[in-house]
Amino acid sequence: MLPEEIIISPVVTEKSNDGLQEGKYTFKVNKKATKVEIAKAVEKLFNVKVLNVNTMHVNGKSKRVGYHVGKTSDWKKAIVTIDINPEETTYLVKGGKEEKVSRKYKDSIEEFTGA
Q: What is the pTM of this model?
């Protein structure tokens, strides 16, 4: 699946907005997507480092319009935790020198409508 097919839309509620300071973003995702696919899609679309993905199935609610009773569709929700403090990485190169590399990740998702 393409990343655009996996991430359907952001979920903007009071509870999801409370998690933004901790780096937790909530998305409506494809029902067939796995946690690994969701993490790769978020990393590719928003250029952030994903630390953790929690998923859950949300059952549809029963609705009534006049005499007719129906049900909204079931969907899948993913809470994605991103790295909000990307630090520089140091490693040794030939000759025993230390070299620092800054990560190219963002620390937030600006495109998220709740941010």
A: 0.78
